[in-house]
Structures are given as C-alpha cells and as structure tokens.
Amino acid sequence: MERVLVIGVGFMGGSFALALKNHGFKGSIYGYDINPESIKKAFDLGIIDEGTTNLSDIKNYEPDLIMLSSPVRTFRYIAKGLKDLVDEEVTITDQGSVKGNIVYELERILGNRYVGGHPIAGTEKSGVEHSIPNLYEGKKVILTPTKNTDKEKLKKVESTWRMIGGIVEYMSPELHDHVFGVVSHLPHAVAFALVDTLIRMSTGQVDLFKYPGGGFKDFTRIAKSDPIMWRDIFLENKENLLKAIEGFQNSLNYLKELIKEEKEEELTGYLREVKTKRMEID
Ligand code: NAD
Predict the structure, then answer these.
(1) Ligand 1 atom closest to Cα of residue 98
(2) Does any ligand 1 atom lie closer than 6 A to the CB of residue 38?
(3) How far is the CA of 122 from the centre of ligand 1 (A)?
(4) Residue 205 clears pLDDT 90, i.e. is over it
(5) Closest CA to 51 of 63, 38, 64, 65
(6) Complete edge-to-edge strand list for the sheet that includes strand 65-68
(7) Which of 80, 134, 139, 240 has the fewest Cβ atoms within 10 angstroms?
C-alpha cells in the first residue's frame, strides 16, 4: 500500500491518516472533502500530503486504498462519483457507524472493491483539528464482509487496521446494526433527549442549565457530538434504533412504576442489579 485517499477529512479521516503516519506508513496520504477549510487545516497540520475539493482530481492521486470518512448518508452519492474514477484493483472501505443496507448498496455501486468497516473508537469532538494519532490503539474494529467481499481486499483492510493498533472482529452488516443500535446509537439518542428535557422543563421561574453537576455532565457529554453525523446515523439505522428506544421506554416505565408505587425492596433490587452489571464492564 503506497497511496491512501481519505474522503471526508474530519476527525475520523484525520485520525486514520495520522495513525498511518505514526505507525511508519511511508507512502502518500491524499484528502478529498467538500469543505475547503478541512483540506487546508489538514494540509497545514501535516495530516495529508495533498488534498482537493474536486472529486475528479482523485484520478491523479491513483490511490490503492480509499477510506470513506464522511457522514454515512453521503456514502452512496460519493460511491456513485467514485465508481468510474478508480479502477477495479482499488480497495474502498469506510469508518461509517452504520452498515446494514449501506454495505449492500455500496457493493452494488462499487462492486467487490468495497469492504465495510467501523472502528469502535471516537469522541464527541468533530473536525480534523481534533484528530488523535493513537485513536485506534487497542480498540475494536468491526469488519462486515458479505459473500461478495473480495478476500484479498478484506485481508488488506484487516492488516491496515491491525497495523494502526485496531483489534479486528467480523460481523454481518445486520448484526452490526442491531448491536450498535443498542450500545451506541441508543445512548446518544437518550443523551440528546435528556438535554432536551432540561430545555423543555426550564420554562418559567428557573433556568435548569445553571445547576447541572458532574452526573449530568458525564451522562450528556456525547450530546456535544456533531448533529449532522448523528442525524445520519439515526436515520440510517432507523429500524434498530426504534426497537432500542422502545426497550429503553419499557425500562424507564418499569423504573417509574417502582418509584410511583414506592416499591422500596424491588427498587433496591433493580438498582443493585443494574449497578453490578455496569461494574462488570470497567
Ligand atoms: P467530522 O464532522 O469530524 O468529519 C466529517 C468530514 O466529512 C468533514 O470534514 C466534512 O466536511 C466532510 N464531508 C461532509 N460531507 C461530505 C461529502 N459529501 N463529501 C466529502 N466530504 C464530506 O465527522 P467524524 O466524527 O470524523 O465522522 C466521520 C465518519 O466516521 C461518520 O461516518 C461517522 O459515522 C464515523 N464514525 C465517527 C466516530 C466518532 O466518534 N466521531 C466514531 C466511529 C465512526
């Protein structure tokens, strides 16, 4: 691998580029983004060697690996543009947070050039200036091969992630979206909704936002995430997210009932069980 092109030179695209440089990648890293500011910043920070806001320029870069790193709902459109710009040998993969239908659609557009991926690493910050070179160190990276996936390209994507510290795991695109709908997309939806609750309940005599303590801030840190990115994730994983929201509503209703009925013993049991489970993960 000698020539890598990052499409969407933001936080994740920049982190991927920096991680490669940090792990001894000696080839060239190119960037394409619709926002000229992103390209300029990435170039000034030494994250990319060259960049453009004109997709057809990427022909000149002759990339052998392309990493899609823009919001998930841009992928189809970008893939249609890429289709005739790069040849069959090029490996095209992504860091998108939703797989499911997108994987099959990208396969239809790009043929077996495409391998689906999603690093389970990130922060609430967006923008290339926040890129973190060791973002993927020790983090899971889910690859979602299908029966159409080219084995050589899958190996190449896998070894690239391993090289920058990722721990690769395979899942079907469907299982991926079920799992991350519950463990990632739901908590983000709940965090956004919790802040919204304070907005709605702040009417009248008091501004509730003057009083949040550590608990509220810890819980809602992820509500500082980029709205466009999360709009795309919520809409793209709609079915799984709606099921997860329903599950959450059931749990919240159960808790509400225990409080309303003052079921002291059951409430203690509920809180104990949840605390024990939470302690198991760190
Ligand atoms: P970001 O906002 O920092 O960067 C996105 C970049 O894409 C921006 O520079 C933007 O200008 C560019 N862009 C937008 N539309 C484009 C288009 N049509 N063509 C080319 N470029 C375009 O966002 P991010 O946090 O880097 O997230 C990028 C991707 O990574 C998303 O698909 C997201 O689901 C995935 N992801 C994010 C995280 C995270 O924690 N941030 C974690 C895992 C996966």
Answers:
(1) 34
(2) yes
(3) 11
(4) no
(5) 38
(6) 50-52, 28-32, 3-7, 65-68, 91-94, 114-115
(7) 80
Using the structure block, give the residue that is written with the tokens 């080839």. Answer: 27
Q: How far is the CA of 265 from the centre of ligand 1 (A)?
A: 47
- Over the stretch 49-76, which tens digit does the pLDDT of each residue have? 999 999 999 999 999 999 999 999 999 9
Residue having the nearest C-alpha atom to atom 40 of ligand 1: 122
Which residue among 6, 7, 12 has the greatest number of ligand 1 atoms within 8 angstroms of its CB, and so is best to mutate? 12
- Name the class of domain 175-279: mainly alpha
Question: What per-residue confidence (pLDDT) applies to 176?
Answer: 98
Tell me the domain boundaries of the chain: 3-171, 175-279
- The set of residues, in sequence order, having a beta carbon less than 8 Å from that of 26 and lying 6+ positions away, is none
pLDDT, mean over the chain: 97
Centre of ligand 1 to C-alpha 57, Å, is 20
Mind spelling out the 3-state secondary structure of 182-229?
HHHHHHHHHHHHHHHHHHHHCCCCCCHHHCCCHHHHHHHHHHHCCHHH
Q: Could you please report the per-residue DSSP string of 97-128?
A: S--HHHHHHHHHHHGGGEE-EEES---S--SG
Distance (Å) from CA 128 to ligand 1 centroid: 9
Task: Say if ligand 1 is within 6 A of residue 51 CB.
Answer: no
- Read off the pLDDT band of 93 (50, 70, 90): very high
Residue 165 clears pLDDT 90, i.e. is over it:
yes
> Residue 282 — very low, low, confident or very high, per pLDDT cuts 50/70/90?
confident
Testing ligand 1's pocket by substitution, the residue of 6, 7, 11, 16 carrying the most ligand atoms inside 8 A of its CB is 11
CATH number attached to the domain at 3-171: 3.40.50.720
